[in-house]
Design goal:
Elements: H1 10-17, H2 20-36, H3 38-45, H4 48-66, H5 76-82, H6 90-117, H7 122-125, H8 137-171, H9 173-188, H10 198-216, H11 220-238, H12 250-253, H13 257-280
Helix pairs in contact: 2-8, 3-4, 4-8, 6-10, 6-11, 6-13, 8-9, 8-10, 8-11, 9-10, 10-11, 10-13
């Protein structure tokens, strides 16, 4: 009696037979999880400056690999496609940066509005972001900047690249953006600061980042916007090194001036982001 021998490439054949959406979700989560956790390991095991330098090199390698460099060669074209290697025109760079900055402003103003309706749970927000072991203020800001860059690059490549882009080609842009935003929300709502109030904000941020990637056909504007947003999140809401939100809810103060300003900021930044993304979708001039 002979022993059955597996055919070469059997596992790969099984993988390719899986639904496109399932493969995209799994690949996106794996790419994100592997790349995003390197910074934490470096920060906890090396001195801050050395960890930051190594993380910058690592993030450069992540971009290079996701851009189509390195092994496996058989997946080079696929990686180029999911990274959305589109050369942006000068006008698109301008609209992309406007959309990125307005996206970040939309997220922060929405968080301000949330905590004008309910008290800001500072302890929960800062439970996992204690930087007291960092010896100086300057190094804490360095950690904030590197943390924001790491999250922006790894999450955009994982969620808007490897997860969203393949689903776009198979099931359409709306389904792809909803799927990537749903898993983006699930990931973030596993944190100590998660709450029902934060759920629509995180999901909405995913929707806007998905629209930005699809509209620009590039991950770069989304990475910029994600970085700007996360610098503020890490520095203000999560670590407090940039200050503390101490404004009381409107149930105690009434609809005061700062509340109305936050409403206007949210409306203006969101509408500006959507307009900029619409301009990005216009055909390029040759």
């Amino acid at each position: 009696m002979t022993t059955p021998v597996s055919k070469p490439g059997h596992s790969f054949t099984f993988w390719t037979k899986l639904p496109t959406a399932l493969r995209a979700v799994v690949t996106g989560l794996v790419v994100f999880a592997v790349s995003a956790n390197v910074w934490l390991l470096l920060l906890l095991n090396l001195n801050t400056a050395l960890a930051a330098a190594l993380e910058v090199v690592f993030l450069g390698l992540v971009i290079w690999w996701s851009h189509g460099g390195g092994p496996p060669k058989a997946a080079q074209v696929f990686r180029e496609k999911v990274f959305r290697r589109t050369r942006l025109t000068s006008a698109q760079w301008i609209w992309g940066i406007i959309a990125a900055v307005c996206f970040a402003a939309t997220v922060h103003s929405s968080i301000v509005l949330l905590f004008r309706f309910m008290p800001y749970p500072a302890a929960a927000f800062r439970r996992d972001y204690d930087l007291s072991f960092i010896p100086s203020e300057g190094l804490r800001w360095l950690v904030v900047a590197i943390s924001a860059a790491s999250a922006a690059i790894c999450e955009e490549i994982g969620f808007r690249g490897f997860m969203q882009q393949p689903i776009e080609g198979r099931d359409g842009v709306s389904t792809a953006i909803f799927t990537s935003s749903f898993f983006f929300m699930l990931l973030h709502l596993s944190k100590a600061w998660s709450s029902l109030g934060m759920a629509p904000i995180v999901f909405g941020a995913g929707i806007l980042l998905g629209l930005l990637a699809s509209s620009s056909e590039s991950l770069i504007p989304g990475i910029i916007g994600h970085f700007v947003m996360d610098v503020g999140l890490f520095a203000y809401w999560w670590t407090g090194i940039a200050g503390t939100f101490s404004t009381r809810p409107i149930s105690q103060t009434g609809m005061d001036g700062p509340f109305l300003i936050a409403c206007c900021a949210f409306a203006i930044s969101l509408s500006s982001a959507l307009v900029a993304m619409a301009r990005l979708r216009k055909p390029r001039h040759r």
